[in-house]
Amino acid sequence: MSSFEGLVAEGAAVPVGGWDFSWFKGRAIEERPPWGYARMLAARMTALADVPGAAGPPTLAATESWPPNVEVARRNLAPLGARVVEVDDECGELPFGDATFDLVVSRHPVCVRWDEVARVLKPGGTYFSQDVGHGSVGELTEFLMGPQPEPDGPTRDPKWSVLDAEAARLTVVDLREFRGRMEFYDIGAVVHFLRKVIWIVPDFTVEAYRDRLRALHERIEADGVFVATSVRFLFEARKPPA
Question: Cystine design at 77: which of 82, 120, 136, 168 (Cβ 3.0–4.6 Å)?
């Protein structure tokens, strides 16, 4: 069995650019929602293609606010002819004109500017997302940071998305929720996960949390696994026709 220090060093050394989670194979797993967001999104994009057999619409653009992912996004989306725009703030204005898109999508958005989504959608256009729900991976957050206070304002509960979408004059047409099982099999996987998914423990560094990481390592050694819960919801809203 690998040592605590060796596993932590391994998890701290893995690059965090991109959203490739293949490194976790055999070290952590996450149960997936049943609806298949990628498949549903692909069908919507294909339906917007103006050439039979094309994989996507003729105009395709994406934004990316995390610097390590900008070039990854450009490389991955280049085959689809997409333009990737680097933005400073995910909660800022969208760098596109009014009524530009038939479809606006986001997988696990940190922030949604509903007024901007409504602005860039064409009349009759659709917003389609898969979101991280309130309290996702909360067991890991609380193990490292202790019990968390109840928030005073809006959370990632989908009821707030419904209210905000409707305030932007969008009509909610689909909402599904899911709670799935996550399993971490070694502390190196935990360290890499926390470096990659930075909102689980927002101020995470190995040195700041070394004592709690060691306690978690000992628990995983004793139990063989650390179990947490992922929370997801599927959300679809539509802009009224002109």
Answer: 82
**Which alpha helices (H) appear in the chain, and where do they start and end?**
4-13, 37-48, 67-77, 114-120, 138-145, 158-167, 187-196, 210-223
pTM: 0.89
Instruction: Kindly state the helix (H) or strand (E) to which residue 84 belongs, with its residue range.
Output: strand 83-86
Cβ-based neighbours of 101, under 8 Å, separated by 6 or more: 59, 61, 120, 121, 122, 125
Cβ atoms 182, 188 nearer than 8 A: no
Retrieve residue 35's tokens: 């609806």
- Other C-beta atoms closer than 10 Å to the C-beta of 52 total 6
CB 64 within 8 A of CB 73: yes
Do residues 195 and 23 lie in contact, with contact meaning Cβ atoms separated by under 8 Å? no
Average pLDDT, the chain: 94
Q: How far apart are the first and last CA of the chain?
A: 64
1 pLDDT above the threshold of 60: no
